[in-house]
Give the backbone structure.
Amino acid sequence: MKRIMIGAAIIMVIAISAICAPVVAGYNPLEMDLTEDAILQKPSLEHFFGTDNLGRDVFSRMLYGARVSLSVGFIAVIISLVIGVLLGGVSGYFGGWVDAVIMRVVEVMYSFPTFFLIMMVVTFLGPNIVNVMVVIGLTSWAPLCRLVRAEFLTLRERDFVSSARVQGVSNFRIIRRHILPNAMAPVYVSMTLSVGSAILIESALSFLGLGVQMPAPSWGNILTIGKNYIDYAWWLTLFPGLAILITVLSFNMIGDGLREVLDPKSDRKD
Amino acid sequence: MNDNQKILEIKDLTLRIGGKCIVKNVSFKLTAGRVMALVGESGSGKTLTAQSILKLFPPRIYAEGSITFKGKNLFELDKEEIRKIRGCDISIVPQEPATSMNPVTRVGEQIAEGIRQHQERSKPDIKQRVLELLRMVKLDEGTFSSYPHELSGGARQRVLLAMALVLDPEVLILDEATTALDVSIQKDIIELIMNIQKERNLAILFITHDFSIVNLIAHNVCVMRKGVIVENGTKESVLHNPQNEYTRRLIACVPKLGDTRRRLPNNIS
Ligand SMILES: Nc1ncnc2c1ncn2[C@@H]1O[C@H](COP(=O)(O)OP(=O)(O)O)[C@@H](O)[C@H]1O
Ligand SMILES: [Mg+2]
């Protein structure tokens, strides 16, 4: 419970500052100042996280970058949630050949090295944030699908589901009202954990130049610049690195906390 | 018995799984206003027989015979047609009150589920009906917003009864509906069922392996053994003048009929 609160608090702070970026930032994230004194400034009260090689304020760029990271994380996960729950649910509830086909597809998804698949697709479609979100979403639903399928497989045999069937409740309604609400606990856990990994993938793609394109800021592409100046301008690497680490860690904390709270084997307060 | 009052007739029901015959040539009739007890040790095929009535048998079962409800052969109906019979005309009360309710849904919503599925009614109207049912099964109106885990076993069984009755079915099937309960609570529930049965002129199929309950509730009795009906008659004739050796042995296991404190052992034969 404590972990959930801490994780959620950190995410809230990051999310709110990202949303209010124009107010909080203090600088235009795109505004360059190429004068000798302005570039690669150390962190100071004026520039909390210093400036980059083009004299842009890193703190402001990171706030706008948080928008990218969080929205990629959430939207990618929502896409994979919809696909995973839909296919996993159909697979687990109806079984038979539908299940066999879906499970083969899932195995194929599993056997691809996902990151390279994402890289290839993004290169092919052109690197931009929408493509990144969609591609991460489209390639990360397989574990969720398996999870939901397993839940549905056990739930459909439960007495309360047969008693709904005895009452003439339709398959659609049984799934929506009786199975899905009971299957959601592990789904929430897996979702929070996936937000973290989606953010990591986005950062990696941006770092490699396949995600958000400069001059638009993202945590990943600030790191790309940082890489070139790592001997001297440590702040260009440290702050975005920390931001990614803390964000991913917070989501994992929420996920682990949820897992514990929602685990029927641990005594829960409901 | 007046024959034109019969509403459900099972004729030569035979169920096979992978060549193995589990239920063989089972025939009996249910009549409005009467309670038929289906008795037999566990594994004799009672549950499968009951499920067959609503075509709810497990996959890979091969069924023969006919089940006629008010002139319609239920075996000839398609999935959608039989679904509309379930809960509306024929209801089954399940055996396990502990696991037969959705753990994350409020009791009132669960009772309302049948109405929502089968009828178009306004929200207050539905709530009205659910409260009416809670009163009928002698539960507090506050139960409406409880979750199943907050209720006792007896109260859960009452809720299941309310769920089964919400659409005013004509046939009620109770599959060992009181077996999981304490003996004193069992008696209350049986009394409740008997009252509702009279009030509504229900046809009831009461499945049990306990002859002492049969004595309390039944008008007619079928005794089933290894998938075959070995005895079928009025309660009086079956209890006092059993024709079959197996029935005699079952009855002999109840030392004093009417004494519900005793139970039959499950493994006779
Ligand atoms: N899904 C199934 N597959 C195979 N055999 C089954 C299945 N369900 C029940 N049976 C068998 O059918 C027989 C009758 O079961 P059942 O109707 O549950 O008996 P009862 O309700 O009288 O205890 C049992 O021997 C059981 O092993
Ligand atoms: Mg049974």
Summary: Residues B 17, 22, 40, 42-48, 58 surround adenosine-5'-diphosphate (ligand 1) (CB under 6 Å). Confidence is low (pLDDT under 50) at residues 258-264 of chain B. The first helix of chain B runs from residue 46 to 53. The interface with chain A takes residues 54, 56, 83-88, 91-92, 94, 96, 99-105, 113-114, 116-118, 147, 149, 160, 163-164 of chain B (CB under 8 Å).
